[in-house]
Design brief:
The chain is mostly helical. The protein is 64% helix and 5% strand.
Length: 119
């Protein structure tokens, strides 16, 4: 019913958020379970890319409209592994443009001008 249907999944998440905001313990536990799964995914990428020490990651997507219901347990889980979750500074498109500019431009001034334009 909801498999591969982003619209229906987003609608379900809105209902889940309403329930959590009304104090529904099961809804809150679902956000905690989602945070656990996200932490496992982030941890796997962390290990695969052979990061070490403190690492900063960010997030995007509709799930994070749930605010502290998803962010607090996710922060807690990531901190156990030395990973810091920070709010996004730019939109996903802006971040991708900055990464592409940094990767393909040897001109530091060009990247500085792009960053200045985004702020």
């Amino acid at each position: 019913m909801y498999k591969n249907n982003r619209t229906k999944t987003a609608e379900l998440q809105k209902l889940l958020l309403q329930a959590a905001m009304q104090g529904d313990e099961e809804a809150i536990r679902l956000y905690e379970a989602a945070a656990e799964e996200l932490a496992l995914i982030i941890g796997a990428v962390y290990r695969k890319l052979e990061f070490s020490g403190d690492t900063i990651v960010s997030y995007s997507g509709g799930l994070f409209h749930a605010g502290d219901f998803i962010l607090k347990p996710l922060v807690r889980k990531l901190e156990e592994n030395g990973i810091c979750l920070c709010p996004p500074k730019y939109s996903p498109v802006q971040g991708a443009a900055l990464l592409a500019a940094r990767e393909y431009s040897r001109d530091g001034e060009f990247l500085s001008r792009i960053k200045a334009g985004l702020e």
